[in-house]
Design brief:
The chain is α/β, with parallel strands linked by helices and about 130 residues long. The chain is built from eight helices and five strands; from the N terminus they run βααβαααβααββα.
Amino acid sequence: MDLVVDANVIFSALIKDSFSYYLLFSGKFHLFTPEYIFTEFEKHKDEILGKTERTTEEFYKLLEVLKRRITIVPLEELTDYIETAEKISPDLGDMAYFALALKLNCSIWSNDKKLKQQDIIKVYHTHELVNL
């Protein structure tokens, strides 16, 4: 199953070995994310490290593994879908996830309840994917 993975899911996996962590590495899903996500994690490294027991070295190792596990899609590839995504997305900050889901014709994996406030793109929470 193809899924666009939201930053909050990856953030959760960076913090602790959770259901999100397990599912990210389960091999059950083909995962995609907009390219800027990993830049954001780098910017918020100190905040993430403050919420976890991981060392800086473990953080960077996990980040590199995640970059290999998740297909990173350049924003230039989403330009044809931006206008529609802006209309669908309940939050413009999440518009890139919707643009990518439109491009790939797939669902979004996010724990942000707000993203379910539309009926065009299916949005799965982690607990829903565990039950699949």
